[in-house]
């Protein structure tokens, strides 16, 4: 299976640069994974595709304002860093630009010295480990100094940082939003529950590996970066009970899907717990837990496009994406949505 098999031509102007004023007003493509048949609706029509007894599984991770701008102490060199992964004792794994100016021992100042960071090591793929020093609470300082780490294909400035959070975001730790969930409003979620659909929460802290391009031609040789997930006991029971009663588990987003598939055993039972997952789902994968998926439209040749192709079949997905381009759907993080069932 080749990476190039997952290429499609996307006009630049179809990449959504701003969120819609009404989260649930985005368009919704319904894809029947058995037939490949497509319907065009709006996201608030999602209720028509959900059945009483279904369980909707959302990822309640919260994006941190992980992009910081500072300067190298002793010079005027501007430095941009992106927080990727919290280690211990205020050490973070980070992405630094320009990296060549940040050798071990380099000290970077942010916000006139409110926060400083010393590069202590260079690790995998040139990422830097930075030891931070500050007075007070790190999260509060980050809230003051940091910016939302929007994906590289979004060039507009975000007016309201809450628009890059789901309405149910709770546990801080992501460098990117689980964007399928951005379409839900509190009102729409209330209507979902009124219909008799259960809502379960899992947590997966989304890393920048989400946007990392597949650089190998043989899909099976691609290495996924690991991300931390949590499945609580009570939520696992809710999901397992749904399956046991013959109802469907619908994942909101590829991150919820990857969490469920990582925590499920070969017996189809979801295990509560936490850990790191580097699960890579591509065509040929046998799903253990999910029956359907709500998702956005993904980048050409991306691991996420491979994941949805595993669920609905590559031919059906690529045909649906071609139709989405023809119908001028909005793509990627702030774009329109698809439900596969």
Write the layout of secondary structure elements.
Layout lengths: L26 E5 L6 E5 L12 E5 L1 E3 L3 E6 L5 E9 L4 E7 L9 E4 L4 E8 L5 E7 L3 H8 L25 E4 L11 H9 L3 E7 L22 E5 L1 H12 L4 E4 L1 H10 L9 E5 L14 E5 L6 H10 L1 H13 L10 E4 L1
Parallel strand pairs: 1-17, 3-12, 3-14, 4-11, 14-16
Antiparallel strand pairs: 1-2, 5-6, 5-8, 6-7, 7-10, 8-9, 9-10, 12-13, 13-15, 16-17
Helix pairs in contact: 5-6
Molecular structure report:
- The chain is α/β, with parallel strands linked by helices.
- It has two domains: 3-63 and 160-340, QueA-like; 67-145, Thrombin, subunit H (Beta Barrel), CATH 2.40.10.
- The chain has helices spanning 138-145, 186-194, 233-244, 254-263, 303-312, 314-326; strands at residues 27-31, 38-42, 55-59, 61-63, 67-72, 78-86, 91-97, 107-110, 115-122, 128-134, 171-174, 198-204, 227-231, 249-252, 273-277, 292-296, 337-340.
- The chain has a nine-stranded mixed sheet with strand order 2-1-17-16-14-3-12-13-15.
- Helix 5 packs across helix 6.
- The protein is globular and about 65 Å long.
- The chain starts with 26 loop residues before the first strand and ends with a strand.
- The mean pLDDT is 95.
């Amino acid at each position: 299976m080749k990476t190039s098999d997952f290429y499609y031509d996307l006009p630049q102007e179809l990449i959504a640069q701003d969120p819609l004023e009404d989260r649930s007003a985005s368009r919704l493509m319904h894809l029947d994974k058995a037939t490949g048949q497509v319907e065009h609706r709006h996201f608030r029509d999602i209720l028509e595709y959900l059945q009483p007894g279904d369980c909707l599984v959302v990822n309640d991770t919260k994006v941190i304002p992980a992009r910081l701008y500072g300067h190298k102490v002793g010079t005027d060199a501007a430095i941009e860093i992106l927080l990727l992964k919290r280690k211990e004792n205020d050490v973070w794994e980070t992405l630094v630009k320009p990296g060549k100016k940040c050798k071990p021992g380099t000290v970077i100042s942010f916000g006139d010295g409110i926060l400083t960071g010393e590069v202590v090591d260079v690790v995998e793929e040139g990422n830097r480990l930075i030891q931070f020093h500050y007075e007070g609470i790190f999260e509060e300082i980050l809230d003051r100094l940091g910016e939302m780490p929007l994906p590289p294909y979004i060039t507009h400035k975000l007016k309201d940082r809450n628009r890059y959070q789901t309405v149910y975001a709770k546990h801080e730790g992501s460098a990117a939003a689980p964007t399928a969930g951005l379409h839900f409003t509190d009102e729409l979620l209330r209507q979902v529950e009124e219909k008799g659909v259960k809502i379960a929460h899992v947590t997966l802290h989304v890393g920048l590996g989400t946007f990392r391009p597949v650089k190998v031609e043989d899909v099976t040789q691609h290495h996924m970066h690991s991300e931390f997930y949590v499945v609580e006991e009570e939520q696992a029971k809710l999901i397992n009970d749904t399956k046991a009663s013959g109802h469907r588990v619908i994942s909101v987003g590829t991150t919820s899907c990857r969490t469920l598939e990582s925590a499920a055993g070969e017996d189809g039972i979801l295990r509560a717990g936490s850990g790191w997952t580097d699960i890579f789902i591509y065509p040929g994968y046998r799903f253990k837990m999910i029956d359907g998926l709500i998702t956005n439209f993904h980048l050409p040749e991306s691991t996420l496009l491979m994941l949805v192709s595993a669920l609905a079949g590559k031919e059906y997905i690529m045909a649906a994406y071609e139709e989405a381009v023809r119908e001028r759907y909005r793509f990627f993080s702030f774009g329109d949505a698809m439900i596969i069932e």
